[in-house]
Known about the structure:
Blueprint: E1 9-10, E2 16-20, E3 23-28, E4 31-36, E5 41-46, E6 51-56, H1 61-82, E7 85-92, E8 97-101, E9 104-108, E10 115-118, E11 124-129, E12 132-137, H2 140-153, E13 163-166
Antiparallel strand pairs: 1-6, 2-3, 3-4, 5-6, 7-12, 7-13, 8-9, 9-10, 11-12
Amino acid sequence: MSRIGKKPIEFPANVEVSLNGREICVKGPNGNLQWQHPEGVSVAVDSESRRVTVSRDSDTGTLRAFHGLTRALVNNMVVGVVEQFEKRLEIQGVGYQATLSGGELRLQVGFSHSVDLKVPSDVDCSLVSPTLIVVKGCNKHSVGQFAANIRAVRPPEPYKGKGIRYQGEHVRRKAGKAFGSK
Length: 182
């Protein structure tokens, strides 16, 4: 049995979890999420004890993998509608900055042109400063994917450390060329 998969998911009173066939709907104060779980995995919602349990039909390798995955994804849905997921990105480099206007994030990161990224509808993007981007949302996948898309525009380079990085991310630095003669 999966260690993660057999743990029940407890949800608070302000969250409503419903099951319609294979589709799981989670409604909370920060939004609504829906997801269709894979066949062979069963999800049971107990409204009185406020618990969701996940089980599998057989012991095949793929179902064992889907068992833990399903439990983790449903747990992320419950956590996301209660307290939103957040990623923070720092921009480092002389003249590198970001601006936000009309649902588009404009990055000026050393190219001859600025890079425009459309902010997804289920993600909130804000700028604390021109060099600090905050990405928030109740869907963990959307938040992580949009943050990764921002970082992919100009990943941090190892010589000077310029680029876009997650806040607190350590970038290994290289020494560069050593000058000397033989």
